[in-house]
Design brief:
Strand content: 15-25%
Shape: globular
Distance between the termini: 17 Å
Number of strands: 10
Helix content: 25-40%
Bound molecules: zinc ion
Largest sheet: 8 strands, parallel
CATH class: Alpha Beta
Radius of gyration: 17 Å
Number of helices: 8
Number of domains: 1
Amino acid sequence: MTNQITRCDCHLHTDNSFDSETPAQRQVARARELGIEYIALTDHCDILEWSDANIARSNAQAMELNAKYDDITVLRGLELGEPLQDMDETARVLGLCEYDFVLCSLHNIRGEEDFYYLHPDRAQAADLVRRYFEELLEMVQWNEFDSLAHLTYPLRYITERDGVPVDMSSYQPVIDEILAMLAANGKALEINTSGLRNPNGFLLPTVEYVKRFRELGGTYITLGSDAHTPEHMAVGMAEGIAAAKEAGFTAATVFVNRQPMELPFEK
Ligand SMILES: [Zn+2]
Ligand SMILES: [Zn+2]
Protein backbone atom coordinates (compact mmCIF):
# COMPACT_ATOMS: atom_id res chain seq x y z
CA MET A 1 0.00 0.00 0.00
CA THR A 2 1.33 3.40 -0.94
CA ASN A 3 0.31 6.31 1.19
CA GLN A 4 -1.50 8.92 -0.86
CA ILE A 5 -0.38 11.75 1.38
CA THR A 6 3.33 11.34 1.84
CA ARG A 7 6.01 8.78 1.10
CA CYS A 8 8.40 10.26 3.66
CA ASP A 9 8.64 12.12 6.94
CA CYS A 10 12.19 13.26 7.64
CA HIS A 11 11.85 15.06 10.95
CA LEU A 12 10.80 12.87 13.88
CA HIS A 13 11.70 12.63 17.55
CA THR A 14 11.78 9.70 19.95
CA ASP A 15 12.47 9.25 23.66
CA ASN A 16 16.12 9.79 22.75
CA SER A 17 15.18 13.48 22.61
CA PHE A 18 14.74 15.43 25.86
CA ASP A 19 11.26 16.53 24.83
CA SER A 20 9.72 13.25 23.62
CA GLU A 21 8.58 10.13 25.46
CA THR A 22 7.81 8.09 22.34
CA PRO A 23 9.84 4.90 21.85
CA ALA A 24 11.35 4.67 18.35
CA GLN A 25 9.41 1.45 17.81
CA ARG A 26 6.12 3.34 18.19
CA GLN A 27 7.13 5.96 15.63
CA VAL A 28 8.01 3.22 13.19
CA ALA A 29 4.74 1.38 13.87
CA ARG A 30 2.78 4.56 13.17
CA ALA A 31 4.69 5.20 9.95
CA ARG A 32 3.99 1.66 8.73
CA GLU A 33 0.29 2.12 9.58
CA LEU A 34 0.29 5.25 7.40
CA GLY A 35 2.13 3.49 4.59
CA ILE A 36 5.10 5.88 4.77
CA GLU A 37 8.12 4.43 2.97
CA TYR A 38 10.94 6.52 4.47
CA ILE A 39 11.30 8.08 7.88
CA ALA A 40 14.29 9.69 9.53
CA LEU A 41 14.73 9.62 13.30
CA THR A 42 16.17 13.07 13.93
CA ASP A 43 16.70 13.21 17.66
CA HIS A 44 17.90 16.44 19.19
CA CYS A 45 21.55 17.26 19.49
CA ASP A 46 21.45 20.84 20.73
CA ILE A 47 25.16 21.37 20.79
CA LEU A 48 25.39 23.09 24.19
CA GLU A 49 23.41 20.30 25.84
CA TRP A 50 23.43 16.82 24.37
CA SER A 51 24.16 13.29 25.44
CA ASP A 52 26.43 10.83 23.64
CA ALA A 53 24.34 7.98 24.97
CA ASN A 54 21.08 9.30 23.52
CA ILE A 55 22.52 10.02 20.09
CA ALA A 56 24.26 6.64 19.90
CA ARG A 57 21.06 4.93 21.04
CA SER A 58 18.91 6.76 18.47
CA ASN A 59 21.37 5.78 15.74
CA ALA A 60 21.48 2.13 16.83
CA GLN A 61 17.69 1.93 17.06
CA ALA A 62 17.28 3.37 13.58
CA MET A 63 19.58 0.66 12.20
CA GLU A 64 17.87 -2.08 14.19
CA LEU A 65 14.36 -1.02 13.12
CA ASN A 66 15.48 -0.54 9.54
CA ALA A 67 16.77 -4.12 9.45
CA LYS A 68 13.56 -5.44 11.01
CA TYR A 69 11.05 -4.38 8.32
CA ASP A 70 10.92 -4.69 4.54
CA ASP A 71 8.17 -2.14 3.98
CA ILE A 72 9.90 0.90 5.48
CA THR A 73 13.33 2.49 5.45
CA VAL A 74 14.31 3.97 8.80
CA LEU A 75 17.07 6.52 8.32
CA ARG A 76 19.73 7.45 10.85
CA GLY A 77 19.13 11.14 11.30
CA LEU A 78 20.21 13.90 13.64
CA GLU A 79 18.72 17.31 14.39
CA LEU A 80 21.91 19.25 14.97
CA GLY A 81 21.06 22.47 16.78
CA GLU A 82 23.30 25.55 17.04
CA PRO A 83 26.38 23.78 15.58
CA LEU A 84 28.50 26.95 15.48
CA GLN A 85 28.16 27.59 19.20
CA ASP A 86 30.62 24.81 20.03
CA MET A 87 32.58 23.60 17.02
CA ASP A 88 34.54 20.98 18.96
CA GLU A 89 31.35 19.35 20.17
CA THR A 90 29.90 19.57 16.67
CA ALA A 91 32.92 17.73 15.26
CA ARG A 92 32.56 15.17 18.03
CA VAL A 93 28.90 14.38 17.39
CA LEU A 94 29.42 14.22 13.64
CA GLY A 95 32.20 11.69 14.26
CA LEU A 96 30.28 9.70 16.86
CA CYS A 97 28.11 7.71 14.42
CA GLU A 98 27.42 7.36 10.74
CA TYR A 99 24.33 9.27 9.73
CA ASP A 100 22.06 9.16 6.73
CA PHE A 101 20.71 12.62 7.29
CA VAL A 102 21.89 15.69 9.18
CA LEU A 103 19.16 18.25 9.68
CA CYS A 104 20.52 21.57 10.89
CA SER A 105 18.56 23.93 13.10
CA LEU A 106 18.84 27.02 15.27
CA HIS A 107 16.61 27.03 18.37
CA ASN A 108 18.51 29.60 20.39
CA ILE A 109 20.77 32.34 19.11
CA ARG A 110 24.06 33.04 20.87
CA GLY A 111 23.56 34.20 24.44
CA GLU A 112 19.79 33.65 24.42
CA GLU A 113 17.46 30.87 25.45
CA ASP A 114 15.44 28.80 22.99
CA PHE A 115 12.74 30.92 21.36
CA TYR A 116 10.32 28.57 23.10
CA TYR A 117 11.13 30.29 26.39
CA LEU A 118 11.18 33.87 25.08
CA HIS A 119 8.17 36.15 25.08
CA PRO A 120 9.50 39.29 23.39
CA ASP A 121 7.49 42.41 22.67
CA ARG A 122 7.41 43.74 19.13
CA ALA A 123 10.68 45.71 19.31
CA GLN A 124 12.59 42.91 21.06
CA ALA A 125 11.20 40.43 18.56
CA ALA A 126 12.51 42.49 15.64
CA ASP A 127 16.03 42.43 17.10
CA LEU A 128 15.94 38.72 18.02
CA VAL A 129 14.71 37.69 14.59
CA ARG A 130 17.42 39.79 12.89
CA ARG A 131 20.09 38.07 14.99
CA TYR A 132 18.48 34.71 14.25
CA PHE A 133 18.79 35.11 10.49
CA GLU A 134 22.36 36.42 10.80
CA GLU A 135 23.42 33.32 12.73
CA LEU A 136 21.45 31.11 10.34
CA LEU A 137 23.42 32.58 7.43
CA GLU A 138 26.68 31.68 9.19
CA MET A 139 25.41 28.11 9.62
CA VAL A 140 24.59 27.86 5.94
CA GLN A 141 28.09 29.15 5.11
CA TRP A 142 29.51 26.42 7.37
CA ASN A 143 27.63 23.91 5.18
CA GLU A 144 28.25 20.58 6.97
CA PHE A 145 24.65 19.36 6.89
CA ASP A 146 22.01 18.10 4.45
CA SER A 147 18.85 20.12 5.08
CA LEU A 148 18.03 23.35 6.88
CA ALA A 149 15.20 22.86 9.39
CA HIS A 150 12.28 25.21 10.00
CA LEU A 151 13.71 28.38 8.40
CA THR A 152 11.22 30.63 10.20
CA TYR A 153 11.45 28.89 13.60
CA PRO A 154 11.10 32.05 15.78
CA LEU A 155 7.66 32.68 14.29
CA ARG A 156 6.42 29.37 15.71
CA TYR A 157 6.46 31.05 19.12
CA ILE A 158 6.55 34.80 18.56
CA THR A 159 3.71 34.94 16.07
CA GLU A 160 1.92 31.60 16.03
CA ARG A 161 1.83 31.17 19.80
CA ASP A 162 2.09 34.67 21.27
CA GLY A 163 0.44 36.64 18.47
CA VAL A 164 3.24 39.22 18.17
CA PRO A 165 3.53 40.39 14.55
CA VAL A 166 6.94 40.40 12.88
CA ASP A 167 7.61 42.48 9.78
CA MET A 168 9.45 39.91 7.72
CA SER A 169 10.14 42.23 4.77
CA SER A 170 13.16 43.80 6.48
CA TYR A 171 14.85 40.38 6.63
CA GLN A 172 14.34 39.57 2.96
CA PRO A 173 17.93 40.40 1.92
CA VAL A 174 19.50 38.06 4.48
CA ILE A 175 16.88 35.37 3.83
CA ASP A 176 17.69 35.62 0.12
CA GLU A 177 21.37 35.16 0.94
CA ILE A 178 20.56 32.09 3.04
CA LEU A 179 18.37 30.53 0.34
CA ALA A 180 20.78 31.32 -2.50
CA MET A 181 23.69 29.81 -0.62
CA LEU A 182 21.73 26.68 0.31
CA ALA A 183 20.81 26.32 -3.36
CA ALA A 184 24.38 26.90 -4.58
CA ASN A 185 25.68 24.34 -2.10
CA GLY A 186 23.15 21.72 -3.24
CA LYS A 187 21.53 21.55 0.18
CA ALA A 188 17.87 21.04 0.94
CA LEU A 189 15.33 23.34 2.53
CA GLU A 190 12.94 21.70 4.95
CA ILE A 191 9.20 22.31 4.80
CA ASN A 192 8.26 21.78 8.43
CA THR A 193 4.56 21.22 9.05
CA SER A 194 4.61 21.51 12.85
CA GLY A 195 3.41 25.11 12.76
CA LEU A 196 0.07 23.92 11.42
CA ARG A 197 -0.59 22.33 14.80
CA ASN A 198 -0.73 25.80 16.39
CA PRO A 199 -4.12 27.56 16.51
CA ASN A 200 -3.15 30.23 13.95
CA GLY A 201 -0.44 28.14 12.43
CA PHE A 202 1.33 28.13 9.11
CA LEU A 203 4.10 26.15 7.43
CA LEU A 204 7.69 26.81 8.51
CA PRO A 205 8.50 28.34 6.12
CA THR A 206 5.42 29.46 4.20
CA VAL A 207 5.05 28.89 0.47
CA GLU A 208 6.48 32.31 -0.47
CA TYR A 209 9.91 31.26 0.90
CA VAL A 210 9.70 27.85 -0.76
CA LYS A 211 9.03 29.66 -4.04
CA ARG A 212 11.90 32.04 -3.41
CA PHE A 213 14.24 29.09 -2.77
CA ARG A 214 13.18 27.61 -6.11
CA GLU A 215 13.69 30.95 -7.91
CA LEU A 216 17.18 31.18 -6.42
CA GLY A 217 18.09 27.78 -7.82
CA GLY A 218 17.03 25.40 -5.04
CA THR A 219 16.80 21.75 -6.08
CA TYR A 220 15.90 19.78 -2.97
CA ILE A 221 13.23 20.05 -0.33
CA THR A 222 12.73 17.70 2.62
CA LEU A 223 9.42 17.22 4.41
CA GLY A 224 9.15 17.00 8.19
CA SER A 225 6.27 16.91 10.64
CA ASP A 226 8.61 17.30 13.64
CA ALA A 227 6.36 14.83 15.45
CA HIS A 228 7.30 14.10 19.03
CA THR A 229 4.31 11.73 19.36
CA PRO A 230 2.92 9.17 16.88
CA GLU A 231 -0.35 11.05 16.39
CA HIS A 232 1.49 14.07 14.98
CA MET A 233 3.32 12.04 12.35
CA ALA A 234 2.74 13.31 8.79
CA VAL A 235 0.17 15.84 10.03
CA GLY A 236 0.09 18.74 7.58
CA MET A 237 1.92 16.87 4.83
CA ALA A 238 -0.83 17.54 2.31
CA GLU A 239 -0.27 21.27 2.85
CA GLY A 240 3.50 20.85 2.77
CA ILE A 241 3.41 18.94 -0.50
CA ALA A 242 0.96 21.46 -1.99
CA ALA A 243 3.41 24.27 -1.13
CA ALA A 244 6.31 22.36 -2.69
CA LYS A 245 4.34 21.74 -5.87
CA GLU A 246 3.15 25.34 -6.05
CA ALA A 247 6.80 26.40 -5.86
CA GLY A 248 7.66 24.11 -8.76
CA PHE A 249 9.21 21.14 -6.98
CA THR A 250 8.23 17.75 -8.37
CA ALA A 251 9.70 15.55 -5.65
CA ALA A 252 10.52 15.36 -1.98
CA THR A 253 14.08 14.37 -1.13
CA VAL A 254 15.31 11.89 1.42
CA PHE A 255 18.98 11.50 2.30
CA VAL A 256 20.55 8.05 2.44
CA ASN A 257 24.19 7.92 3.50
CA ARG A 258 24.16 11.72 3.23
CA GLN A 259 23.22 11.52 -0.47
CA PRO A 260 19.99 13.01 -1.86
CA MET A 261 17.40 10.67 -3.31
CA GLU A 262 14.26 12.11 -4.86
CA LEU A 263 10.79 10.66 -4.34
CA PRO A 264 8.53 12.12 -7.06
CA PHE A 265 5.16 13.48 -5.99
CA GLU A 266 2.05 11.95 -7.44
CA LYS A 267 0.73 14.18 -10.20
ZN1 LIG B 1 13.82 21.97 15.75
ZN1 LIG C 1 12.67 18.78 15.77
